[in-house]
Specification:
This protein is mainly beta. The chain has one domain: Roll (SH3 type barrels), CATH 2.30.30. The strands form two sheets. Strands 2, 3, 6, 7, 8, 9, 10, 11 and 12 form a nine-stranded antiparallel sheet that branches. A three-stranded antiparallel sheet has the order 1-4-5, with no helix packed on it. The termini are far apart. The mean pLDDT is 88.
Length: 151
């Protein structure tokens, strides 16, 4: 019986599954996006951009937030602008946000960091693999991690 399930094509999925993928030259992209890509990948002629991708079963979509890095002991967050695929490896084009913890709500309030440049981050650089969906409460942008973020 186990052999039947192991033979199913949907059991073992590829490490990266992407939808709505477009292959473009970095030179035609916006300057800030091009600068972020060139800082991570020096001599690249084309990149694949996707609106969403599934990495090892976890779906990442434009507009979701991920945690990467720390500042003063608090995790930093970033908004996924695009999923970038280079040489069959996925990474994210991220817009950095500043965050502070709201104890009574047990969530982080995010504010856009106007001076920060876009970042290209690989999944291994994230504090947590779980993407976060933002929500607004009384005009504040909030995210609630599903577990503890170890920075």
């Amino acid at each position: 019986m186990l052999a039947y399930f192991l033979d199913m094509p949907s059991l073992f999925k590829p490490p990266v599954e992407a939808v709505n993928v477009s292959v473009v030259s970095p030179d035609i992209l916006d300057y800030t996006v091009r600068k972020a890509i060139k800082s991570k990948y020096k001599d690249i002629l084309s990149v694949s951009l996707a609106s969403s991708a599934s990495l090892h079963g976890t779906k990442y979509t434009e507009g979701m937030f991920v945690s990467l890095g720390t500042t003063s002991g608090l995790p930093d967050f970033g908004k996924i602008l695009k999923v970038l695929i280079v040489a069959d490896k996925a990474s994210f084009i991220i817009e950095p946000f500043s965050a502070w913890f709201l104890e009574h709500l047990r969530c982080y309030e995010l504010t856009k960091n106007p001076t920060a440049d876009l970042i290209v981050a690989e999944p291994e650089e994230l504090n947590n693999y779980c993407p976060l969906s933002p929500y607004f409460l009384q005009g504040r942008l909030l995210v609630s991690p599903k577990g503890f973020l170890l920075c």
